[in-house]
Amino acid sequence: MDLVAIKRHIRRNTLAYVAILPMAFTVIVAYMGTMFWSVRLSFTSSRMLPKYDFVGLSQYERLFETSRWVTSLENLLIIAFLFLAICFVLGFLLSIFIDQKIKAESFFRTIFLFPYAMSFIVTGLVWQWIFNPQLGIQSAMRSLGWESFTFDWIVNPDMVLYTVIIAAVWQGSGLVMALLLAGLRGIDEDLWKATKIDGIPTWRVYVSIILPMLRPMIITTVVLLSISIIKMYDVVVAMTLGGPGVASEVPAKFIMDNLFERANIGIATAASTVMLTTVLCLIAPFIYTNYIKKQGR
């Protein structure tokens, strides 16, 4: 593009550039500025108030020597594996179900996607009531005559993490369904006719042919779900407050507690920097595959 064409492009899009300035300013100052400021504070000895000295990696050493932080990372790994696996399988099955051109398709699609429209706070409160031994499933079953029925996962340190996973899957599987359904609707009908003529079993078509074709949708789904896992805070606070003890502690809650309750800015920013690095590691392959690599062809 020559200089004349560039000037013409700028004149034609001047209003668009002016309109985007407030958002660009917000991104640069409010988002990126605070992000770099937080990273900077993670290398200081800040406690209740920010300091601007330099202590190297001492905050990170203290962080990974804290058993509560290590427990939160272990919990996050368990949540990540089970949440991603169950959400993807359930969402894929729901998308296949709706893709069969069933009656009342719009109704079922809305029902499956509705939980994703709810906030994590609402989701957490709903499932907290369901799992509460005094109010939910256990109470309902005992009122029906099963006096010895016990379902106390939410107060059981060994099982509480799975209650959080169930609530998160209930909310997130609808997103997977919507994204994969969009991919399924883009597959040519001739492909299905050809597989039927060849006598290929339906399950084999989905596993060997359809899933590879849905790769862009799958990558998008994994990235979105992974970021939501790393940011998971609301549902944990609403359901368990990280308890019993630290059995359902997650990194986001650890950061918020140290920042606002324990007045330990150094540890909080160090932990948030670790999570920021994790998010960047998740996003980088997605950006490279879908933008940089394609443009380089």
TrEMBL record:
Its main location: membrane. CDD domains: TM_PBP2. One of its GO terms (biological process) is transmembrane transport. Gene3D superfamilies: MetI-like. GO terms for cellular component: plasma membrane. It is a multi-pass membrane protein. InterPro entries: ABC_transporter_permease, MetI-like, MetI-like_sf. Keywords: Cell membrane, Membrane, Transmembrane, Transmembrane helix, Transport. It comes from the Bacteria. It is found in: Cell membrane. Residues 73-288 form the ABC transmembrane type-1 domain. The keyword DNA repair does not apply. The chain crosses the membrane at residues 15-39, 76-98, 110-131, 159-184, 205-230, 265-288. It holds the Pfam family BPD_transp_1. Belongs to the binding-protein-dependent transport system permease family. This is Sugar ABC transporter permease. It comes from Vibrio qingdaonensis.
